[in-house]
């Protein structure tokens, strides 16, 4: 058993390395750049190790990766470093763009300098959230969404079709969710716009809706086991069987599925929200030219996108990336058309108002 | 009797000093640059004090106060970091927000209450351990057995916190054990309660209590207890009237350490606590993590937290030193 | 009676040993689990996580980096903290309470806030992010712990000893070096252990003040993002063994050094 799974993993690794090496674009090898370095802040495994080595060998540009663990810390760190940041490329989720842009921390992305921009699925590269103030701000690499995950030994696929199951007596104290994210979903479930863009001119209406969602979560507080924050937490709760269903991001859930845990996930019929991780170039980036070379290289082939998916569990934004996944990986990163039809993307336009209302509501729910 | 012990020690100190002429120290004292230096430093008690005090005062002002002034400064502003093209104004709103909204009071008082409770639990748990080590174990083994207890503390907070999860989870070690010996059929939900949180915090802080207690107990002469026993005092009376008062200093410093560390804990309560155990550090971090642009409010709340913790610490220390003075005489 | 007490207390001691070691044993146990997630049941076992740790040069260099930071910052904290403790203990002077308050301040500020405050202040002072900045922040943060521990010990130093030395003509510095400092050694050792641990385990200050080279906790947090895998437990186990080896070696070394200078 041990041997077998060891081989399986090694095989995957070898396959990933091989495919990426194959995919190394010829023009990069020819155009040997001036060398130097490029500094990147990103999550663990978001820059595939094999790609990094290949890139360094091909271009002579040294890749310095600084591992980060959440969006808030990147924001704080960059804010503390400006106007002379040490970073060139950072990883921001699409719906956090506006906060970074408002604080003047990002440089607009000149997509004309990226020959491989067209390799990104237009659903992500040309969607409504990606253009702000007339500019593109980041290159989409991975896509995530808010899903309902459930232990298939205890919860039926039928039950998981609705968010209501998360609040049912049947699974009292066997559920968990991230309150901030749940607030948006509850608003959607109640028939409102969870992005609150529709209420930009109607602050009273917005406040009333947030209050309604808040009251709903307070009413159901006795049924929840845990309000959590990070993917590793919900994975551990599933493994320890402290919960049998919960709201989660698809990445952590996919990682459990790929490891053979009896888990599945759905986008329930009431709908849900998606978000996209993008590589962004910092304002006053010290090595902006190298940053563009790096971005163009990482977008160059679907195999690189597939390698990122394998490592993170999130869905690749690259065209045809799924052709390079195993069946299990395909299963853990795909949804039915019916499910996808009810998915919307998070939007940032109303974030100031939205989180101005939601953050105090979250405090109130925790204090209730 | 205590006078005898002290005078014996004085005698020893004096004799080492008398030998001093032949050793390194003797040569140092007679070395002329050192004499000039010592003369300069020790000219008057006033100058001695000034030289002693200069560095600490400079240090605390530049290193301790500097960063905090910056933070307190931020807490009185309406925007930080300042976005391009906007102006920063001074305001008291960030403080008003705490006092104006009762939802923030609960986590605040909960933090103080939890920290105090867990500190007390740690004390109760570790005192007998320190007592046993210091009083009943031979000198040779003391260090070894103390080091044994230190080993787990070299593992990071996060890793140990996750270890608590696989200990207490529904399929955790404790539940597995209880089920396999047939005591229960359904797992007991230990996790995500104030119990699991307390267990984690006590686990992480025990060392900071154990060491001060041990060092206080270790230097307590055994003869005191024997003398009290000769006078007919029972074990409990001896402990209460002799050992406890003489170790108040260790108790006080251990409790202060644990209390301070426990109020500042963030990751452990967040990971091990339940829906209704939110601590203030989590509230504060929320202003820095989730909201991102609410640093001033976060800074104001942090200021409130550390001023409160400081007051608690000072009151506690005063109380302890009053207790000590009252009891030892 | 006395023997009964003794047996009872030794039971308490071993129960405590069990309490601190059980989670540790679980940690080591699941580091051999053949799965990407820790927890029970363990269906199959593997050494793969350990071979991975030793194959990964980053983990080992990160460990060394964290140890160097811990040792340097501890050295600074101990000197400064002892100095402040000597100033504060047993003296009455104007402003003493203020200095005490300022001294414990860094310990009272929640980690995330102190980290950001340090980061902004470091920029003001022109300290570049990296090892120097981390050492500085750890040293400042750990001073209060040294002060508290050393003050506790100092308060029990019999005044008569110092007076006797002074009567014999020792100047204050010699009296401090010959009488006070040796008396403080156990407290200083204890405080050093605190500082080493606090520094070695610090995430948030290291993250904000660090550059592109991570310390061990920073690496672990980053890895945690993609799941709490046995790999992290394997790293922690290796780090634990390495620290124990370094610790035992250091203890032996100082003991031998002591013997040589005495002999």
UniProtKB/TrEMBL annotation, chain A:
Keywords, comma-separated and alphabetical: Periplasm, Signal, Transport
Gene Ontology MF term list: polyamine binding
Gene Ontology biological-process annotations: polyamine transport
UniProt keyword annotation of rRNA-binding present: no
SUPFAM superfamilies named among the record's database cross-references: Periplasmic binding protein-like II
CC terms in the record's Gene Ontology section: periplasmic space
Pfam families the UniProt entry points to: SBP_bac_8
Compartmental location: Periplasm
Highest taxon in the source lineage: Bacteria
InterPro entries per UniProt: SBP (IPR006059), Sperm_putr-bd (IPR001188), TAT_signal (IPR006311)
Protein name: Extracellular solute-binding protein
Phylogenetic classification of the source organism: Bacteria, Pseudomonadati, Pseudomonadota, Alphaproteobacteria, Hyphomicrobiales
From TrEMBL, chain B:
Residue ranges annotated for the ABC transmembrane type-1 domain, each copy included: 108-316
Membrane topology, as annotated: Multi-pass membrane protein
PANTHER family with a match to the protein in the record: ABC TRANSPORTER PERMEASE PROTEIN, INNER MEMBRANE ABC TRANSPORTER PERMEASE PROTEIN YDCU-RELATED-RELATED
Main location: membrane
Top-level lineage group: Bacteria
Family: Belongs to the binding-protein-dependent transport system permease family. CysTW subfamily.
BP GO terms, sorted: transmembrane transport
Residue stretches spanning the membrane: 49-66, 112-134, 146-168, 188-211, 246-267, 298-316
Compartment(s) of residence: Cell membrane
Gene Ontology cellular component terms for the protein in this record: plasma membrane
Lineage of source species: Bacteria, Pseudomonadati, Pseudomonadota, Alphaproteobacteria, Hyphomicrobiales
Signal peptide: none
Protein name: ABC transporter permease
Keyword annotations: Cell membrane, Membrane, Transmembrane, Transmembrane helix, Transport
UniProtKB/TrEMBL annotation, chain C:
Bilayer-spanning residue ranges: 12-32, 63-86, 98-121, 133-154, 175-200, 232-250
Keywords of the record: Cell membrane, Membrane, Transmembrane, Transmembrane helix, Transport
Record bears the keyword Repeat: no
GO cellular component, one term: plasma membrane
Main location: membrane
PROSITE patterns in the cross-refs: ABC_TM1
Pfam families: BPD_transp_1
Intracellular or extracellular location(s): Cell membrane
Alphabetical list of InterPro entries matching this protein: Bact_Polyamine_Transport, MetI-like, MetI-like_sf
Family: Belongs to the binding-protein-dependent transport system permease family. CysTW subfamily.
Name used for this protein in its record: ABC transporter permease
């Amino acid at each position: 058993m041990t041997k077998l799974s060891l081989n399986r993993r090694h095989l995957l690794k070898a396959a990933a390395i091989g495919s990426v090496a194959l995919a190394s674009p010829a023009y990069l090898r020819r155009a040997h750049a001036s060398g130097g370095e490029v500094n990147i802040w990103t999550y663990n495994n978001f820059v595939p190790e094999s790609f990094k080595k290949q890139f360094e060998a091909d271009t002579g540009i040294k890749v310095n990766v600084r591992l980060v663990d959440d969006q808030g810390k990147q924001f704080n760190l960059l804010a503390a470093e400006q106007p002379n940041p040490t970073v060139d490329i950072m990883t921001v989720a699409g719906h956090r763009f506006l906060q970074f842009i408002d604080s003047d921390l990002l440089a607009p992305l000149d997509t004309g300098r990226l020959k491989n921009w067209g390799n990104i699925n237009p659903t992500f590269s040309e969607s409504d959230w990606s253009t702000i103030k007339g500019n593109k701000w980041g290159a989409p690499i991975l896509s995530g969404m808010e899903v309902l995950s459930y232990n298939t030994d205890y919860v039926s696929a039928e039950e998981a079709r609705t968010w209501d199951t998360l609040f049912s007596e049947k699974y009292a104290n066997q559920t968990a969710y991230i309150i901030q994210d749940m607030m948006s979903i509850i608003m959607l479930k109640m028939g409102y716009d969870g992005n609150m863009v529709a209420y930009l001119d109607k602050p009273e209406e917005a406040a009333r809706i947030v209050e309604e969602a808040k009251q709903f979560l307070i009413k159901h507080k006795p049924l929840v086991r845990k309000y959590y924050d990070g993917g590793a937490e919900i994975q551990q709760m599933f493994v320890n069987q402290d919960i049998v269903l919960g709201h989660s991001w698809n990445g952590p859930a996919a990682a459990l599925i790929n490891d053979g845990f009896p888990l599945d996930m759905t986008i329930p019929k009431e709908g849900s929200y998606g978000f996209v991780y993008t590589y962004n170039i910092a304002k006053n980036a010290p090595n902006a030219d190298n940053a563009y070379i790096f971005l163009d290289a990482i977008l160059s082939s679907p195999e690189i996108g597939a390698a990122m998916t394998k490592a993170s569990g999130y869905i690749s934004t690259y065209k045809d990336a799924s052709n390079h996944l195993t069946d299990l990986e395909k299963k853990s990163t795909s949804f039915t058309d019916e499910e996808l039809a009810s998915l919307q993307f998070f939007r940032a336009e109303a974030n100031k108002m939205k989180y101005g209302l939601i953050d105090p509501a979250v405090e109130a729910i925790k204090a209730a | 009797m205590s006078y005898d012990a002290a005078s014996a020690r004085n005698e020893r100190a004096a004799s080492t000093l008398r030998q001093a002429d032949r050793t390194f120290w003797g040569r140092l004292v007679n070395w002329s640059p050192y004499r000039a230096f010592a003369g300069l430093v020790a000219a008057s008690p006033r100058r001695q004090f000034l030289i002693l005090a200069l560095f600490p005062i400079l240090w605390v002002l530049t290193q301790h106060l500097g960063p905090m002034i910056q933070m307190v400064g931020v807490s009185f502003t309406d925007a930080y970091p300042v976005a391009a093209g906007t102006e920063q104004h001074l305001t008291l709103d960030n403080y008003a927000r705490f006092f104006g909204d009762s939802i923030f009071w609960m986590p605040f008082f909960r933090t103080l209450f939890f920290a105090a409770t867990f500190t007390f639990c740690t004390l109760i748990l570790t005192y007998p351990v320190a007592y046993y080590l210091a009083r009943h174990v031979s000198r040779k083994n003391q260090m070894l057995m103390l080091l044994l207890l230190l080993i787990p503390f070299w593992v990071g907070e996060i890793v140990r916190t996750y270890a608590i999860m696989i200990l207490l989870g529904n399929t955790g070690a404790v539940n597995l054990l209880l089920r396999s010996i047939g005591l229960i059929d359904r797992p007991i939900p230990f996790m995500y309660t104030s119990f699991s949180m307390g267990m984690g915090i006590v686990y992480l802080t025990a060392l900071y209590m154990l060491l001060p207690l041990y060092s206080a107990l270790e230097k307590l002469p055994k003869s005191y207890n024997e003398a009290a026993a000769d006078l007919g005092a029972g074990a409990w009376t001896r402990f209460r009237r002799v050992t406890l008062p003489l170790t108040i200093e260790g108790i006080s410093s251990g409790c202060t350490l644990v209390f301070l560390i426990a109020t500042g804990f963030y990751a452990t309560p967040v990971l091990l606590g339940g829906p209704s155990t939110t601590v203030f550090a989590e509230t504060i971090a929320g202003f820095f993590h989730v909201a991102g642009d609410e640093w001033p409010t976060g800074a104001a709340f942090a200021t409130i937290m550390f001023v409160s913790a400081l007051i608690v610490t000072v009151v506690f220390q005063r109380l302890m030193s009053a207790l000590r003075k009252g009891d030892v005489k | 009676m006395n023997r009964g007490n003794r047996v009872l207390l030794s039971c308490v001691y071993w129960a405590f040993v069990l309490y601190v070691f059980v989670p540790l044993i679980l940690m080591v146990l699941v580091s051999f689990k053949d799965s990407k997630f820790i927890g029970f049941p363990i269906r199959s076992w593997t050494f793969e996580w350990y071979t991975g740790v030793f194959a990964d040069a980053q983990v080992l260099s990160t460990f060394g980096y964290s140890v160097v930071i811990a040792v340097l910052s501890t050295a600074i904290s101990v000197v400064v903290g002892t100095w402040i403790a000597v100033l504060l203990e047993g003296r009455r002077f104007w402003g003493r309470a203020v200095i005490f308050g300022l001294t414990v301040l860094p310990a009272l500020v929640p980690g995330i806030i102190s980290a950001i405050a340090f980061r902004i202040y470091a920029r003001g002072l022109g300290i570049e992010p990296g090892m120097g900045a981390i050492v500085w922040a750890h040293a400042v943060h750990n001073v209060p712990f040294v002060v508290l521990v050393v003050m506790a010990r100092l308060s029990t130093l019999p005044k008569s000893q110092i007076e006797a030395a002074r009567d014999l003509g020792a100047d204050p510095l010699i009296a401090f070096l010959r009488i006070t400092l040796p008396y403080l050694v156990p407290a200083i050792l204890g405080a050093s252990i605190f500082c080493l641990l606090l520094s070695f385990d610090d995430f948030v200050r290291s993250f904000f003040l660090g550059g592109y080279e991570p310390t061990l906790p920073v690496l672990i947090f980053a890895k945690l993002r993609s799941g709490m895998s046995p790999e992290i437990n394997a790293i922690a186990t290796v780090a634990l063994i390495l620290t124990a080896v370094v610790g035992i070696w250091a203890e032996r070394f100082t003991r031998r050094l002591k013997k040589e200078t005495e002999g």
